[in-house]
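Annotated sample (chain length 122).
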Amino acid sequence: VQLQASGGGLVQAGGSLRLSCAASGGTFSRYRMGWFRQAPGREREFVAGIAWSIGSTYYTDSVKGRFTISRDNAKNTVYLQMSSLKAEDTAVYYCAATQNAGYLPTVNYDYWGQGTQVTVSS
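Output written by the structure step:
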C-alpha cells in the first residue's frame, strides 16, 4: 500500500492543523494506522494510532486531549486533527500502516508515507 501524507504547515502556538494520509494500492480497511513524528535531533516517536474499528484509538500522553485520530475507510484516508499546538509539536509527521496484531504504539509498521512538516511558532 502507498501512503501520501499532507496538511502540514506553519501555525502559531495554540492553533490547529489537520493532517491527512491517503492510502492507495491496498484494502485500506484491513490496515491499522498510525501517526508518528520526528523532531530534529530526536528519535521518531509514536503519536496516535487507530485500529480497524473507529472506536479503538491510542495516543501518546503528550498529545492526549489535543490530538484526534480518525479514519474514513470509504475515502481510504486517516486524519490527525491537531489542536492547541505547542512549539514542541514541531516535527515531520509520518503516517504508517500495519496488518500486524499487537500494541499499536510498538507494533511493526509495514508501510510508511513520506512525511509532512509541521512547524509551530511560539
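Annotation: The chain is about 0% helix and 50% strand.
Annotation: The longest strand covers residues 17-24.
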